[in-house]
Amino acid sequence: MGSGKGSALRDLGLGEADERVYGALLRRRAPAVPDAAQLCRELGLTRGELARALARLREHGFTLPETGGPGGTGAAAAALPRPVPPAPAVRALIHRRQAELHSRAAELERLRRQADEIAEHLDPAPAVVPGALAGVEAVSGPRAIVRHVDQLLAGAEKEVLILDRPPYLNPWAVAGADPGTGIAALLERGVSVRVVLAREGLALPGRTRLLGPLVDRGLGVRVAADVPTKLIAVDGRDALLPPAGGADPTRAAVVVRDTLLQHVFRPLFEALWERALPLGGGGPRLSEEHRDLLGLLAGGFKDEAIARRLGVHVHTARRRISRLLDELGADTRFQAGAQAALRGWLAGS
């Protein structure tokens, strides 16, 4: 499985072995579902690998609960669980991921409130003051915040991640330079830069014109309907959360480091990145043919049944399926269903 094309499933918490087992269960529904030993031989897995894959599929809601009980013997012990159809399974998993996002966003707000309290009670003379939380400090004052952003970007060596939403503390330029200079300098130094931009930000004058040349230089940009916070993270070690009210000089920015960044903010960025659409994609228009095909694939129909439903030869149906997988950047039909659900192309997702 290609690392790029499989990324959606990895972000959903499934591995390659899990997907292969799930695909085999979908292809062979009862009464033709194989037993565990047969499936191990077919997929080249050990019994331990199969057991772990089945446990993950059960945990994520891709198989129905076993009816024989965990202590079954003989045929009952060797039997395999029945799969849940892809569409409801993926939708349910995405809803759980969304709940996790909301939880992380609530954690961001809690940290922001604590940073404001720190800024209120400490001597305002220093521009940067240590916070009461381990790995967290408050940066007070617009000039100090801009200076800290410049320092963060100047020290970047490998990667910069940005969540961008109004009101804006501009990370796109260094002080006194033309817009885009700061990001352009990073790209010229070989630093990877990815941005998740709130959809409303595209309406700002000159924003699309600014982004175009930067995308040509290698900037990764995706657009999300909602970005819960602003964030600038550098090399997985330092991150700055600009104040929610960018024009309010009394608000403090929050600087976080190391563990907090890795366990809260990096996962938040990656989850938003996976759900966002590439700049210019803006919700690709889905043809009626592909919409019908996606619905049939999500329902678990086999090629012959899909061909009958579409009124075409089975070879024609397979060619259409292949084109759809290419368009979605998917290696397998399950990946295609996951990608379609992530993009909101499946009804109710």
Automatic annotation (TrEMBL):
Biological processes annotated in GO: regulation of DNA-templated transcription
GO MF, one annotated term: DNA binding
Domain HTH luxR-type, chain residue ranges per copy: 283-340
SUPFAM superfamilies: C-terminal effector domain of the bipartite response regulators, Phospholipase D/nuclease, Winged helix' DNA-binding domain
Domain of life of the source: Bacteria
Gene3D superfamilies found in the cross-reference section: Winged helix-like DNA-binding domain superfamily/Winged helix DNA-binding domain
PANTHER family attached to this UniProt entry: HTH-TYPE TRANSCRIPTIONAL REGULATOR TRMBL2 (PTHR34293)
The protein, known as: HTH luxR-type domain-containing protein
